[in-house]
Specification:
mainly alpha, globular
């Protein structure tokens, strides 16, 4: 039975969210940059694989959703008098990119499955944040993001199924989710999504 839903190999520590609640403004600034990078990631797959036309509509939809999220977070920041800051290296995403293999097809599969795990982790954490927040409007905002990012996790997995067998996807996906769980353990908690 093929596993259609993207999953994680570990759950976020329940104490993590306190760091976010205690530094919510800093978290918002990081969150905005995550949305912008997620948009760029989806677009970069189109740029690198222009011949994979079957997945372009899904990639465009993801990029569009992320652009909408970016705009929404910027609006929240503006209401709070916050501005973007220059990007800092993101050790989580950088380590995940490093495990992507180099052959053209292998790299496509890995880039899609890495995107899937990043989206699924984002969804998990937005859910945790939505549940922990008290402000009704913010709660609703993060609840909606949770739903969209969870869908993105599945969409990237589905994109892979255009070009790879279910066995290949399943096997590689397991390796990537396990590597992701290990990377999570090594990260210092900051007021950031990862
Ligand atoms: Fe997003
Ligand atoms: Fe997303």
């Amino acid at each position: 039975m093929p596993r259609l839903r993207a999953q994680l190999a570990s759950a976020t520590d329940p104490d993590w969210v306190q760091v976010i609640l205690d530094n919510f403004d800093d978290f918002l600034i990081d969150h905005a940059s995550c949305e912008r990078k997620a948009m760029a990631y989806a677009m970069s797959v189109i740029v690198k694989y222009p011949d994979r036309t079957e997945i372009i509509p899904d990639l465009l939809q993801v990029a569009q959703d992320e652009l909408d999220h970016f705009r929404d977070v910027l609006e929240l920041m503006e209401q709070r008098g916050l501005q973007m800051i220059p990007d800092e290296p993101d050790p989580y995403v950088n380590q995940l990119i490093k495990i992507c293999r180099h052959g053209r097809d292998e790299r496509l599969l890995d880039r899609l499955l890495v995107a899937s795990v990043i989206e699924t982790r984002g969804a998990e954490r937005f859910r945790i944040i939505a549940e922990a927040l008290e402000d009704a409007e913010l709660k609703e905002f993060y609840r909606n993001l949770w739903a969209t990012e969870a869908k993105h996790g599945d969409v990237f997995r589905k994109m892979a199924s255009h070009y790879f067998s279910e066995t290949e996807i399943e096997q590689r996906s397991q390796e990537i989710t396990e590597a992701e769980a290990e990377i999570m353990v090594g990260l210092k908690w900051r007021a950031s999504l990862h």
